[in-house]
Amino acid sequence: MDFNRIISGMIRAARLDVSFFEEVEHDESRSQDALIVVLIAAVAGAIGGFLGLLFDGRFGAAIGTLISSTLMSVITYFFWAFLIYIVGTRLFKGTAEFGEVQRTLGFAWAPQVLIILSFIPILGGIITFVAWIWSIVAGFVATRQSLDLDNTNTAFTVIIATIAGIIIQVVFGLIMGAIGWAGASVAGLF
How far is CA 96 from CA 29, 38, 46, 101, 143, in A? Predict the structure, then answer.
């Protein structure tokens, strides 16, 4: 693992360097790098949330946020890459293998490193918003380059995959909530 190559890639991805996304799409050795970018961004965001809760005196919640936020970021990354791949190749006839989409989208998470600053009152919310928008734009470029789509089909791919992802997460959350509620009822907690 070449950490300098990863950092350089993160900077190029954050600059929305189209040629970089093309390189990553075709370089299978960058798959691990892409996952490391997601982990770095996830841990940075989790640290920001951890510090915010810690400064509020909520140590237990801070530890829980640190762990769950990191885990959910990695799961979301793979889930979103899969949805982008399915929608882009099946509905819009994009040409890519899953690994190509996964690698490019991993580097698109680079701007989310800024979420480490989310604990700063008022400014943290603005930074988080900007980092997410920046990452979505990088995700658009990554999707377009990895699937070889035009801008319109790329936009539809990202929108449909995002809406599908939100619906699936809501349904999954409702199911898990119902299971938890039923378990609590059976255990006599309600």
Answer: 16, 21, 32, 7, 10
State how many domains the chain has.
Answer: 1
Residues 6+ apart with CB under 8 A from 100: 25, 26, 146
Digit-coded pLDDT (tens) for 45-78:
888 888 877 777 777 776 777 787 788 888 889 9
Can you give 103-127 as a three-state secondary structure string? HHHHHHCHHHHHHHHHHCCCHHHHH
Domain limits for position 135: 3-186
Locate 122 and state its tokens. 């008022």
DSSP 16: T
55 CB-near residues (< 8 Å, 6+ apart): 119
**0.90 exceeded by pTM:** no
- Per-residue CA distances from 40 to 4, 35, 104, 116, 153 (Å): 14, 9, 15, 10, 30
